[in-house]
Amino acid sequence: MKRFNLTVRVVGLAVVTLVGAGACTPDPQTDPGGRGGGLARAGSVEQATGAGGSSGSDRRVQAVDRAVPPRTITRPVPEPGPTRTMPQRPQTKPSQATSCAQGEYQREVETYLAKLNFGPVLEDGRQSDLDCATIKKFQQRYDIRPAEGRAGPLTYDVSKRLATTDVSRCNAGTGSATTFCIDLTRQTTWAMRSGKVVWGPTVTRTGMPGYRTPAGTFKINYRNIKEWSNPYEVWLPYWQHFTQGMGYHQTTTYLHNKSIGSHGCINLLPSDARRAWELGKIGSRVIVFGRRPGT
């Protein structure tokens, strides 16, 4: 009886041993490569889940399919340093800003206009709003085109002729009667009474080459507010004849076109022709001196 019990115990112990060994053998289907890929390695679950305890060696653990959050690298924000201010360049303003263009005769025109007392100007050779306004006014007065305030060659020419006209060269005397004076050299004209200038000087255009206006002393002997010119078939406003079919009248073309000139007459701007008409009368003296350049 004792021998039977001993045999049973031995057999039972062998069975237990065989069953326990089979529980820890890796499943060949689960880990085909033989590297334990289908089972969690020791400590892998703790690293992945943060769990502190062991799940036991007899528990098949599925691989954890959880994304590991990326490591966030926090860089310290630098403390703001002292603010650097770039040096600012001083703003330079033009001494005489203007919207008008400066002409090549700026200083000369300024000088001549100052001599003529024709409005305020700054005699510094630089364009300014003040200069521009005065030059433009001058251009409008004498029909200089375009009247844009620029001291160009025509403005220079007209202002020079007017500023350098010597009214004392006309021997008008001191009588109360009106005397008209014509400077052929400068192409200017004016009127005097009692030794004083009562009109002008202003610009004119006299006879062109082949039709030179003669120098001398004459008298107005015929006047007509609007005379018809038979040879040239044109109306001559404010006509005042003094010699050889020549006389004062309003210009019928652009006065500053010197290439065509007149046929001996004294061409005037409209406003000047009207003023000469108002001052003149039959018997008024006309003194012509000098000679137009090129004639």
Summary tags:
295 residues; alpha+beta; L,D-transpeptidase catalytic domain-like; 5-stranded mixed sheet; 4-stranded mixed sheet; disordered N terminus; peptidoglycan L,D-transpeptidase activity; transferase
Description:
With 295 residues, the protein is an alpha+beta fold. Among the domains are: 106-162, no CATH class; 170-289, Beta Barrel (L,D-transpeptidase catalytic domain-like). 24% of the residues lie in helices and 18% in strands. The protein contains 6 helices and 9 strands; from the N terminus they run αααααββββββββαβ. It has helices at residues 2-22, 44-49, 106-115, 129-141, 153-163, 270-279; strands at residues 179-183, 188-193, 196-203, 216-219, 222-229, 234-243, 246-250, 266-268, 285-289. The chain has a 5-stranded mixed sheet with strand order 3-2-1-9-4, with helices on both faces. Strands 5-6-7-8 form a 4-stranded mixed sheet. A hairpin with a 2-residue loop joins β6 (234-243) and β7. α3 (106-115) packs parallel to α5 (153-163). The longest helix has 21 residues, at 2-22. The protein is globular. Residues 1-21 form the signal peptide.
What would you say about this model in short?
The chain is 24% helix and 18% strand. The chain has 295 residues and is an alpha+beta fold.
Question: Which structural category do the helix and sheet elements fall into?
Answer: alpha+beta
Give the H and E element order.
HHHHHEEEEEEEEHE
Q: Specify Rg, calculated over alpha carbons.
A: 57 Å
Arithmetic mean of pLDDT: 78
Tell me the distance between the termini. Answer: 173 Å
CATH level 1 class label of one domain:
Mainly Beta
Query: Low-confidence spans: pLDDT under 50, at least 5 residues?
Result: 1-70, 89-95
Adjacency order of strands in the biggest sheet: 3-2-1-9-4
CATH superfamily of one domain: L,D-transpeptidase catalytic domain-like
Largest sheet: 5 strands, mixed
Helix content: 10-25%
Enumerate how many helices there are, as a single number: 6
Q: List how many beta strands DSSP finds.
A: 9
